[in-house]
Amino acid sequence: MPYIQALPDQPLFHYHITTPSNPDSLPPLILIHGLGSSQNFYQPSLPSLSDYRCISLDLPGSARSPLPLKTPLSIPFLASSIVGLLDALNIPKAVFVGHSVGGLIAATIAADPRYKDRVVGLVGIGAVLPGDDVKEVFEKRKATVEKEGVEVLADSVPLAATAIQATPLHRAFIRELILGQTQEGYASMCNVIATAERPNYSAIRAPTLLILGDEDESVPVAKGAETMKLMGGPGEGKQAKRWELLKRVGHWHCVEDGPRVGSLIAAFVKDIVANEQD
Predict the structure, then answer these.
(1) CA–CA dist 171, 174 (Å, integer)
(2) pTM surpassing 0.90?
């Protein structure tokens, strides 16, 4: 799994690319993880996405990607850095898939007029919706991490943020993802979420799929419905926006029900391709 840097002043990304069974017929997928996670969050969904070229990455300051020394992390910085990564990989356009804060980053890219021609589609999986409630939660979590380290969250989040039916293996995987973070990197990502502003959701023109968990207390179904409304959805047609609800799933969707998430994404993208051919 290689590293890449778009430009000398941009962050270094650790990333992984899959080899698709249909390399030329379907758009690539950019997979952006959430807080306390890594590219490996998407591993349980990849078998369902075997037709696609999937580029999964570790966000700067998360897992194997180092925290930038000169530029503080922010949603706009991370969004522009991911577009820079596409440039470095010679990918003109893609479907952007993001989990939690990764969903917010993906939506920020899709809402930016500079990038509108590069977004084939948008998938938000339990995507964060910025607001005062979110700000309060992540300011407190940042303070906790700065004081006690990531271990305290590795011991609490796997149980608190998953559905009742999640298995010990699911929770062990999540614990390992969190323990793979540095204290400084995790705190920086908490600050990114706490200080995030809402993108101009109404400007998003790409087809959009929101995936929600019915037991997700981090991003409840009501938050997903609010996000969909801000986007002007649900609706039909080439710019259709819709959402899917996963039963017995909490906030770690791909870990808790990876095959189902992958199947929903695959079907969504194939619908986009079919609509473009009409």
Answers:
(1) 5
(2) yes
